[in-house]
């Protein structure tokens, strides 16, 4: 029997039907050679080239430096970094975390101040102005309430005088023997009702102006004051944190915390200074506006009351003209659409 000659895997180069070299066996050949390399080979790169029939392809094996018995391969080529996708849920979670931390610090600062353990920043001049403003607001609200009560009572009196004047006028026509007497009383009550309506217009104008001053202008300033007080609490809370960190040890773990605390403290200090400046400016403008508004309204109120009880109808009407107050004529309805045409 003929013995088959041993075949070396390196000599077997299969050819496909179209005459091209089959690359799969070439890769298998390179893999076998790669396994046969000694484990202690200290080459940074080993290149093995196999030539086939008119083939220009080369098989390259890259061997990196050995580390701990394992080889690490260095891959060359462009590196593509994927853009980090921001998660809205993570952003909201971070905002909630910051808000919770800030709320905790502020609550701790408020409790420590009430218990007398924590220190607070005080601007004596500004705090005094704020206290005066709040006290004046309560007094103006009381004046406003009393003026509204006076307006309601005056309206009821004017309404009664008008009805009484109509009753006297009716009796003047039906009672011939008391025609003049009923007529005088009817004219008097109607005149009093007319003057009362004029006074009522002046009082209502006074109420509207004081209401705007108290519930809009002063209230707007007090909202800024509340923002200032919140900024002051935050400033003191982060100031306390920074002081506590500075009193502790300084090492590699605490230095980043101190630096971050210093940054937050500086940011809240700038916010506190800005709010304090805003409150000072608003208090100044409010004082100027308050004096001007109350001066005019108090003059109007005084002149109208004095002219009414003095029976000086001309002076009462002149007071309303001076302040450009237009009264609605009683008993006159709005013009119809035909009259407007």
Automatic annotation (TrEMBL):
GO CC terms, sorted: cytosol; trans-Golgi network membrane
Subcellular location(s) per record: Golgi apparatus, trans-Golgi network membrane
CDD domains listed in its UniProt record: BAR_Arfaptin
Extent of Basic and acidic residues compositional bias: 22-33
Keyword field contains Coiled coil: yes
Protein known as: Arfaptin-1 isoform 2
Domain (AH): residue spans on this chain: 121-321
UniProt xrefs under InterPro entries: AH/BAR_dom_sf, AH_dom, Arfaptin_fam
Pfam family, one: Arfaptin
One GO biological process term: intracellular protein localization
Coiled-coil residue spans: 123-150, 258-289
Native source species: Daubentonia madagascariensis
Major location (coarse): Golgi
One Gene Ontology MF term: phosphatidylinositol-4-phosphate binding
Disordered: annotated span: 1-33
Keywords of this entry: Coiled coil, Golgi apparatus, Membrane, Phosphoprotein
